[in-house]
Specification:
The complex is a heterotrimer of chains A (about 325), B (about 220) and C (about 550). With about 325 residues, chain A is α+β, with helices and mostly antiparallel strands. Chain A has two domains: about 160 residues, Immunoglobulin-like, CATH 2.60.40; about 100 residues, Orthogonal Bundle (Cytochrome Bc1 Complex, Chain D, domain 2). Chain A has eight helices and twelve strands. In chain A, the strands form three sheets. Chain A has a five-stranded mixed sheet, with no helix packed on it. Chain A has a five-stranded mixed sheet with strand order 4-10-9-6-7. Chain B has about 220 residues and is mainly alpha-helical. Chain B has one domain: Cytochrome c oxidase, subunit III, four-helix bundle (Four Helix Bundle (Hemerythrin (Met), subunit A), Up-down Bundle), CATH 1.20.120. The longest helix of chain B is centred in the first third of the chain and has 36 residues. Classes of the chains: A alpha+beta (about 325), B mainly alpha (about 220), C mainly alpha (about 550). Chains in contact: A-C, B-C. The interface between A and C is large, with 85 and 89 residues.
């Protein structure tokens, strides 16, 4: 019956999805049998007992215990069976795996943002390794959304002010569609994301180089994105005002006096050093409070930040 | 039930044409009123459930909120409503035993107690408005406390407000009853409106009996 | 209405009580009438008008979905269109359709009563309905609402537009529903004709009675929920707003605590009509009368404890989910019993295939699909996949439209001769029924497939792979629309004829047919005294109304 499954359901990309399909197809055949019975009788009786003469009296057939018990008890047993089957599969799919990769998902109108264990982020594209348990921890910044992955036959409402979990283990590598399934306004039908189920090598590459858009985005834009997303903006302004750290405005090429009295010109290598080893050369008038971003930013992101600072002249 | 012919002389002027006799009419009206009261209880029930759930989430805010409520005024109001229920019972009894002036007096007493309730409610409300204790985003009380107090007062105003509207509607109905009673329209043969509005009034009283400890006596 | 009243037809013999109700009193007097039949007719026209309006929105929504991307309207307009379609159809059409229009007309007649228990309350209930409809219309023309008919928070508390007004309209309509429910419960309890014990009541009465009980018990919770929502918008109280410490899921609990029973407010009256039409058109005693009567009440009770099955994906606990799933399956059993009872009732009958029966048979098939696809949705693991997809859209359209509305049409064709004293063109009715059936299935069958393949609901735009199925669905909606146009044509045409309907065209045994068509103002000359059960087709007809003959 695989043709029927392929026709009715999208590709099944996890063991759970296959189980859901089994139950779905089983229910389909069972319900089809009942439906054919109903249609057969609904068509047969009116044809067979069509009125031929007005005013005839009919038989007094008003109850039959055996029949009535049969059509009460048999469906009851069947639905109880279906209940346990469905409940069992459901509970199994929600079991916690201790070694699961945790990805934080934040929904807002009309975007999905993902944050990985190593602190890197991606927008509208979720990368997970194949055959590894994953646990999404989802929340919303505004209204209700729902994270729906048809290929995995799973979904959960994403609720502002709450964290909900969605565990899964994808078994088919490739690109799968993610929809928002809870109505959220104008951009609801465009609130997509792609689920990339990566081979181990692809996933390694992803972790090293970041999401696809990091490789294609113009450097200045990537720098701006990193500035906003990686946390630079909480200490460095771009309008010249002083904060925890020096403002990025007109910073490029400037000669800065350091705490130890020496001075340095702001160039590529100084910025790179300040990101990876921030306490090495701290500008006079500031505390050495910046954490190292070693391993959190990809090479191209650091280049992007440098280009971004250049652009703020 | 008799099978008398439809559309002919009624045995009583207040019997509507589709009832066989006034007893049937009385029973039917009473059933209708009870059903209506059931809907009222369910409606307030929804409010109570929401109130209880949020109280479980923010117990400190609820305790802080109830400190702003005046227990003495609340208690006086409780006494007022209890008394009004009593005079209402007396009015129903009087009307069913053909005592016209006693009916009118008791209805007027009920009205007076209800009026007293509303006056005290007015002072409670205006005092809170003055202090900036308003529901939700209009909450501007300067005295501090948990921010969820705004939600507590959202419930407070919603619950006492909806209850207050019920008291007002009750007062209008009782005033209407008083006029009819004065005209001598009620007798042992027909006092259904007094009886039904009496039931309604007891419900309004009963809801307050639940509201008072919930709102004023949180601990 | 003008058509009917202006018809210069009256077989009155001078006595006021002999005038048929349609011609009793001026046109203006209809506005303040307390006659349950006139109120039923006024509800009927109002509901049909609202159905037309909701249908236009439905066709617009389907047309927009003809192709991916923008077809005829923007995303904002689309969101408003489907919200208005849903809100109108649920609150202004389906909920009042059978109880308020057909129930008002037929219930007292079937009980052998002169009117409902509280005729003035009935009039009030009608005008509250009209007020609610007007408020909803004002909300529509002053910007429209884009929350979906479910008003989920926090979207509904943050979006622009007259949401508070639309919610208030639903609140007002709720009161109309409550008052109608109170009226019917009291009527059934107190105004049955002499000799009519509880188990001699027609099954239509049982169904409407069960419905009325849900209306009385569930609607107040909706009322307070909507009131809290209005409060939330006006004052920012925060009960449903997580930013202020509230809980958006609480709204869903409150909402579905009403709205799932409301599903049965919608379907039980439909089942009630089918329980009337099938034995009558088959001239057969009803099979399993008591089981059907009790299953209505059982459905009414269980319906209060299944609301959580709308929220399997909302993060409720697994235990709660399991309980709701189990109870949901249980509520399916009484429905299955009913279906088999209806079918067995036809066995060895003398079956007429006149229009009411055509719609009743259509109901059996469409309700079969609607009910059986519900099993998929009750199964937790499968529901997680299907929740909020087109599968759900298709399922509830099969239940709400394919069942309730088709049953309403069965009832409309059944009681039309009694209501207006005229027979409609049977041939035209068959053609319309054909288009409705084909159109309906063409519209909604593909949506099961769309949903299974993962197409989420309330989508303005969709992936190109879903296009062919959406196009079949849209074309289907045109066929469906055509069916309704034909129906409007022959029904209106029948009103222009002379009154030609016999008092009992279907040879029914219930009391509503033992008076003239249309009935006289006070329904019966004499109080009927019940002589035989409502479906005693196995013995000769013995009228319960003195002096009545077919």
């Amino acid at each position: 019956m695989n043709w029927l499954r392929d026709w009715m359901m999208p590709l099944a990309a996890s063991e759970h999805a296959k189980k859901v399909d089994d139950l779905y197809i089983f229910t389909f055949w069972l319900m089809l049998a009942f439906f054919i019975l109903i249609v057969y009788l609904t068509v047969l009786f009116p044809l067979k007992y069509k009125r031929k003469k007005e005013g005839v009296m009919t038989i007094n057939f008003s109850h039959n215990l055996a029949l009535e018990l049969a059509w009460s008890v048999i469906p009851l047993i069947l639905v109880i069976g279906l209940f346990f089957w469905g409940f069992n599969d459901y509970v199994e799919s929600r079991v916690h795996q201790n070694d699961a990769i945790e990805v934080h998902v934040t929904a807002n109108k009309w975007n999905w943002a993902f944050e990985y264990p190593d602190g890197s982020r991606s927008i509208k594209a979720l990368h997970v390794p194949v055959n590894k348990p994953v646990r999404l921890i989802l929340t919303s910044e505004d209204v209700l959304h729902a994270f729906f992955i048809p290929a995995l036959r799973t979904k959960t409402d994403v609720i502002p002010g709450r964290y909900v979990e969605l565990p899964f283990t994808a078994t088919v590598a490739g690109k799968h569609q993610v929809f928002c399934a809870e109505y959220c306004g104008r951009g609801h039908s465009g609130m997509f994301a792609e689920l990339y189920v990566d081979t181990p090598e692809q996933y390694e590459t992803f972790l090293k180089e970041g999401p696809e858009e990091f490789k294609t985005m113009p450097l200045v834009e990537l720098g701006k994105f990193t500035y906003n997303e990686a946390g630079c903006k909480s200490c460095h302004t771009i309008d010249g005002t002083k904060s925890e750290g020096p403002s990025f405005k007109n910073l490029w090429g400037k000669s800065e006096k350091l705490r130890d009295g020496s001075s340095v010109t702001v160039d590529e290598s100084y910025i790179r050093e300040s990101i990876l080893n921030p306490t090495a050369k701290v500008v006079a008038g500031y505390e050495p409070v910046m954490p190292s971003f070693q391993g959190l930013l990809r090479d191209r992101q650091i280049l992007g930040v440098i280009e971004y600072i250049k652009s703020l002249k | 039930m008799s099978s008398e012919s439809y559309g002919h002389a009624a045995e009583h002027a207040f019997r509507q044409h589709h009832f066989v006799n006034s007893e049937q009419q009385f029973d039917t009206s009473k059933l209708g009123m009870w059903l209506f009261l059931a809907t009222e209880i369910l409606m307030f029930g929804g409010l109570f459930v929401g109130f209880g759930l949020m109280q479980a989430n923010y117990p400190e805010a609820w305790v802080a909120g109830h400190h702003h409520l005046d227990r003495i005024m609340g208690s006086i109001n409780t006494v007022f409503l209890l008394c009004s229920s009593f005079t209402m019972v007396m009015a129903v009894h009087a009307s069913s035993t053909n005592q016209k002036s006693k009916t009118v007096l008791n209805l007027l007493a009920t009205l007076a107690f209800a009026g007293g309730f509303m006056v005290i409610k007015y002072f409670e409300y205006s005092h809170k408005f003055h202090e900036g204790i308003l529901p939700g985003r209009y909450f501007s009380y300067a005295g501090g406390g948990p921010p969820e107090q705004a939600m507590f007062f959202g419930f407070y105003f919603a619950m006492t407000g909806i209850h207050g509207v019920h008291v007002l509607i009750g007062m209008i109905l009782i005033a209407w009853l008083t006029i009819r009673a004065q005209r001598g329209e009620f007798s042992s043969a027909y006092y259904t409106p007094v009886d039904l509005i009496g039931l309604y009034w007891h419900l309004v009283d009963l809801i307050w009996i639940y509201l008072f400890p919930l709102l004023y006596l949180v601990s | 209405m003008a058509d009917i009243v202006a018809t210069p037809k009256s077989q009155s013999h001078g006595d006021h009580y002999d005038v048929d109700y349609l011609n009793d009193g001026s046109l203006l007097s209809w506005l303040t009438t307390v006659d349950h039949k006139k109120l039923g007719v006024m509800y009927l026209w109002s509901i049909l008008f609202m159905f037309f309006l909701g249908g236009v929105f439905a066709l617009l929504v389907r047309l927009e979905l003809m192709n991916p991307g923008q077809t005829i309207m923007t995303a904002e307009q689309y969101n408003k269109a489907f919200t208005l379609h849903g809100a109108i159809m649920v609150f202004l059409v389906i909920i009042p359709s059978i109880p308020a229009a057909l129930g008002n007309f037929a219930l007292p007649l079937m009980l052998g009563a002169k009117d409902v228990a509280f005729p003035r309350l009935n009039l009030l209930s009608f005008w509250i309905y009209v007020t609610g409809a007007i408020i909803a219309t004002v909300a529509m023309v002053t910007g429209g609402v884009d929350t979906g008919w479910t008003f989920y928070t926090p979207y509904s508390t943050t979006t622009d537009g007259p949401v508070a007004l639309m919610t208030f309209a639903a609140f007002v309509l709720g009161f109309s529903s409550i008052l109608t429910g109170v009226n019917f419960v009291a009527t059934v309890h107190k105004l049955r004709a002499p000799g009519m014990g509880w188990f001699k009541m027609p099954l239509f009465v049982w169904g409407i009675y069960a419905t009325a009980i849900i209306q009385v018990l569930a609607t107040p919770v909706l009322a307070i929920t909507l009131l809290l929502l209005i409060f939330e918008r006006l004052f920012g109280v925060g009960v449903f707003d997580p930013k202020l410490g509230g809980d958006p899921v609480l709204f869903q609990h409150f909402f579905w605590f009403y709205s799932h029973p409301a599903v049965y407010i919608m379907i039980l009256p439909g089942m009630a009509i089918i329980s009337e039409v099938i034995p009558t058109m088959s001239q057969k005693v009803f099979f399993g009368y008591k089981a059907t009567a009790f299953s209505s009440v059982a459905i009414a009770i269980v319906s209060f404890v299944v609301w959580g099955h709308h929220m399997f994906t909302s993060g409720q606990s697994q235990l709660a989910g399991a309980i709701f799933s189990f109870l949901t399956f249980l509520v399916g059993i009484p429905s299955a019993i009913k279906v088999f009872n209806w079918i067995t009732t036809m066995y060895k009958g003398s079956i007429s295939l006149a229009a009411p029966m055509l719609y009743a048979l259509m109901f059996l098939i469409l309700f079969g699909i609607g009910g059986l696809t519900g099993i998929f949705l009750g199964t937790m693991s499968v529901d997680i996949h299907l929740h909020d997809t087109y599968f759900v859209v298709a399922h509830f359209h099969y239940v709400m439209m394919g069942s309730t509305l088709i049953a309403f049409l069965a009832g409309l064709h059944f009681w039309w001769p009694k209501m207006f004293g005229r027979m409609y063109n049977e041939r035209a009715a068959q053609i319309a029924a054909f288009f409705v059936f084909i159109g309906f299935n063409a519209t909604f069958l593909p949506q099961f497939l769309l949903g299974s393949r993962g197409m989420p609901r309330r989508y303005y735009d969709y992936l190109p792979e879903f296009t062919p199925l959406h196009q079949v669905s849209t074309v289907g909606s045109w066929l469906l629309g055509l069916g309704f146009v034909i129906m409007a044509g022959y029904l209106f045409a029948s009103l222009r004829k002379k009154m030609d309907a016999p008092s009992n065209p279907w040879h029914a045994r219930t009391l509503d047919w033992q008076t003239s068509s249309p009935p006289i103002t006070h329904n019966f000359h004499e109080i009927p005294v019940l002589k035989q059960g409502p479906y005693d087709y196995f013995k000769p007809f013995e009228p319960s109304v003195e002096g009545y003959h077919e």
